[in-house]
Amino acid sequence: MTQGQRFKIWLAGLAAALVFLYLLRGVLLPFVAGMALAFFLDPLADRLERAGLSRTAATATITGVFFLLVVTLAVLLLPILQEQVVAFVQRIPTYVDTLNERLHPLILELKRKLSKGDIDKLRTSVGDHAGEAVTWLLGVAKGLLTGGLAVINVLSLLFITPIVTFYMLRDWDIMVAKVDSWLPREHRETIRQQAAEINRTLAGFLRGQASVCLALGAFYGIGLSLVGLDLGLVIGLGAGLISFVPYLGTITGFVTGMGLALAQSQSWELPAMVAAVFAAGQLLEGNFLTPKLVGDKVGLHPVWIMFALLAGGGLFGFVGLLLAVPIAAVIGVLSRSALKRYLRSSLYHGHMP
Known about the structure:
Shape: globular
Number of helices: 15
Order of helices and strands: HHHHHHHHHHHHHHH
Number of strands: 0
Oligomer: single chain
Largest sheet: none
């Protein structure tokens, strides 16, 4: 078999895999989530095995404790979150009054400086953009209800993911050994080296970034609650949990928190404290959390991660978000390997005797 024929076979296999993922994207969520959790927890299972537990006992212990912690955390947080949301809804008229008082001098100044025609144009423009914004929000809500976060998918996450996680974690080493036995003999060592690099990249990013997101969520949630921001825990946890997209969590949390702070208080003290919380969070993330937990050897550039997440989410919905970083890591490792080969080849150096 020629090199070109082998390339065509691998390319056809990759195309078939992508078509398979696209066709089954609606049912893949609990399985992808279970595989991700198994990958995340596998090192702990290996440690318990070395301590003397069987793989099944180690898997049962880890899975049980992990989901027990998740349920306990949810039970503790949900009443607090519900209380904040209810209080927020009840205070909406007060927010409207505060914003009206803040904006009233600006509106009077605009009326004084602008002509009646300019004001009419401004009202028309604002109305059009507001209508577009409402339409977009309704589209997003519809997508959430009918897409990856539909009720049936949420239920599958709750009931199917723990089962998938258990079996994947229990049989992880067996599956890796089986796949290793299928590798083509001629290129086995090269593939093993690339797989080890991919595993290192994924482990460094996923486990490290998950720790960073949890730490930031706790920091922002507690900090915003302490400074007295309504809905502070919700905004803080949300900002931390979506921080796996570089800068998105901080920017979203900061804009939302500042807007709510301006609506909640007539003074500038609360907005200043909210800004201080996010500034401290950025210093904590940039100087301690990311260097210590993620490191600089992962090899995934923030722009590449953002592109992968947007592309994955656009093509496959929430499942695409889960698969985006692993696929980006694979492409990054293979691209760097191909670049090294190119830089050593005669194609780069020209004709070599």
